[in-house]
From TrEMBL:
Domain Amidase: 94-543
Taxonomy, superkingdom: Eukaryota
Native organism taxonomy: Eukaryota, Fungi, Dikarya, Ascomycota, Pezizomycotina
Protein name, entry field: Glutamyl-tRNA(Gln) amidotransferase subunit A
Stretches that traverse the bilayer: none
A Pfam entry, by short name: Amidase
UniProt-listed PANTHER family: AMIDASE, GLUTAMYL-TRNA(GLN) AMIDOTRANSFERASE SUBUNIT A
Organism: Podospora comata
Length: 593
């Protein structure tokens, strides 16, 4: 813990607090100066009251205020940051500094951040200058964002959380990162991930073991678990992630968060360390649907990318869509959901029963809101069977070789190929992945088995479409994971249900659904989430459904360990964060597979 910081103030989770900062003194001419000053004082008070009303209009209760800070960033949203910023309650530098202070204070507990952007405060200064000049544009103006450390961003190395890639230095941003910057975002830093985004435990040779913010004996999901833990702990407004099988939704499930896996092709994947051409997508994780919609709008604004030819699949009417507009209107009344019964584990246990109970409760709530829920029992919806179609082992070596060979990737020393990396001894492969790495070394997209899997994926996609038509469905719903997120040291992140969307390329929005009963390790319980899967390019409809669920059945709660303010700090420069690699469980050896 930093000597300059201290915890202050209890906080009611799920709410945003702001506090008044004395505005700069105004000077008036002699004539009527007393009247003008009195009027100005009244105006200031009324303006302050108005801002508080705006900031709290969406809240069911009032929080305790942190009066020592200009702006309380706990559970802050894009709107609340902008309200405070544009009414001079705070500055962009103060906002960025407040999030950095939280990282300094709480990251030693969760180990979510690998590095901070050394230019973050300089970028904030430039944004403050733009405010002074009246040049404020961009839906993400001064919004701090953390990137999963497989996204290229020029100020920081792109490591995949792998020791052997610690010096890998991109010479240009990923297109999605450029889009975030153009919208005004401040890239705050890079988050840990399960090394090379290959599993869901979020443990790595460079970043160590990330810890679940709600239960320190459990993992945070993954592979985007660092971004998920960071957003859940209020280190940023939202985070980016990738998803090859479960990786955007699993951390949202473990962190009481919202996330999206987009339709394949909607968002360019260029400039992101790849795993699978067929299954990879990029997306975001946030604390509320509105921020998620803004993130989706900005990331999808990249449009067609000639370096990622699946972006050509996007229909013209979808390009340039503002997903924020999709949040409003409509209702849950009349919606038809298909519930995938095969995505539950019906064997009662302390790990599965809480999930089954939360999902049963959610189904009843949806019915009570006027929706119809149809039980889908078709045998094809079996995650064990579907997992056999996963094509990562055939594609991983080829796509990683292509990424490492790019001329716009610098840094030295670093590996130039898959084989060089996995012969370096500077990596972490959990024992359960050893077979996958060995197979990837010799497998390729020329394998007959690969082509057979692609044909079966096409058959599955057609069967999924038929399920929607036959039952006249708006979406499928199911738990993200059949059991609670697993304990640290487990052999794998078992029980996850993300494979259906990964294979078919269909869009999913993840929403918090509930919590397990509280325990000694989890004071408010372990988060449990639900996936909402739709037809191709139905992100707008899914966001609308998610927003109605969030408003009618609010679930998100802040992790208790981070439920305290951090004293404001005046930074001269961005501090250096050093992840804890000493916490890697002994069952995950370094440098062998």
């Amino acid at each position: 813990m930093s000597d300059s910081g201290s915890l202050r103030g209890a906080y009611t989770p799920g709410r945003t607090a702001t506090a008044y900062r004395k505005p700069k003194r105004q000077h008036f001419g002699r004539a009527g100066s007393a009247i003008k000053m009195a009027a100005c004082s009244i105006s200031r008070v009324m303006n302050h009251l108005l801002i508080q009303l705006v900031a709290f209009a969406w809240l069911p209760e009032s929080p305790a205020w942190a009066l020592s800070n200009a702006f309380d960033v706990r559970e802050a949203s894009i709107d609340s940051v902008h309200n405070a910023l544009f009414t001079q309650i705070t500055t962009c530098r103060e906002i960025v500094s407040a999030f950095i202070a939280r990282v300094e204070e709480f990251n030693p507990t969760v180990n979510a951040i690998i590095s901070l952007n050394p230019e973050a405060l300089s970028i904030a200064n430039k944004l403050d200058e733009r405010i002074a000049a009246g040049n404020v544009t961009g839906s993400l103006f001064c919004i701090p964002v953390v990137l999963k450390d497989n996204y290229d961003a020029v100020e920081t190395n792109t490591t995949g959380a792998c020791l052997d890639l610690a010096n890998s230095k991109p010479l240009e941003d990923a297109p999605t990162v450029t889009a975030l910057r153009n919208a005004g975002a401040v890239i705050l830093g890079k988050a840990n991930l399960h090394e090379m985004a290959l599993e869901g435990l979020t443990v790595s040779s460079l970043g160590g073991q990330t810890v679940n913010p709600y239960d320190k004996t459990r993992t945070p999901g993954g592979s985007s678990g660092g971004a998920g833990a960071a957003v859940a702990s209020n280190f940023a407004i939202f985070g980016t992630g990738t998803d090859t099988v479960n990786s955007l939704r699993s951390p949202a499930n473990a962190g009481s968060l919202f996330s999206f896996r987009p339709t394949r092709g909607l968002i360019s994947r260029v400039g992101v360390i790849p795993v699978s051409f067929t299954q990879d997508t990029v997306g975001a994780i946030a604390r509320n649907p509105k921020d998620l919609a803004v993130a989706l709008t900005v990331m999808a604004s990249v449009g067609f990318d000639p370096n990622d030819n699946v972006t050509a699949l996007v229909p013209p009417e979808v390009r340039g869509r503002d997903y924020s507009a999709s949040l409003y209107g409509g209702s849950l009344t009349g919606r038809r959901f298909g519930f995938l019964d095969g995505f539950l584990n019906h064997t009662a246990s302390a790990e599965t029963t809480p999930v089954n109970d939360v999902m049963a409760d959610m189904v009843e709530k949806l019915k009570g809101a006027g929706a119809t829920v149809v039980n889908i029992t078709e045998s094809i919806y079996n995650t064990v069977t579907l997992a056999a179609l996963d094509v990562q082992i055939y594609e991983f070596r080829e796509v990683l070789d292509a990424y490492l060979a790019r001329p716009r990737l610098g840094g030295s020393p670093r590996p130039d190929s898959f084989a060089e990396l996995y012969n370096s001894g500077r990596f972490l492969v959990i024992p359960g992945q050893s077979g996958m790495i060995r197979s990837s070394l010799v497998s390729s997209t020329a394998n007959t088995a690969y082509l057979d899997s692609l044909r079966k994926i096409q058959d599955l996609t057609q069967a999924l479409d038929a399920t929607f038509v036959r039952n006249n469905l708006d979406a499928l719903i199911y738990p993200q994971q059949k059991n609670l997120v697993v304990k640290i040291g487990s052999p794998s992140q078992s029980g996850r249900n993300g494979i259906l969307a990964a294979l078919t390329g269909r869009p999913v929005i993840h929403v918090p659904a509930g919590f397990s009963p509280p325990s000694e390790d989890a004071p408010i319980g372990v988060p449990i989430g639900m996936e909402i899967l739709g037809r191709p390019f139905a992100e707008g409809l899914l966001l609308n459904i998610a927003n109605h669920i969030a408003e009618k059945f609010p679930v998100r709660r802040m992790p208790p360990f981070a439920n305290g303010t951090v004293e404001a700090r005046a930074y001269e420069s961005v501090p250096v964060i050093r992840p804890d690699t000493g916490n890697i469980p002994g069952v995950y050896p370094i440098g062998v597979f």
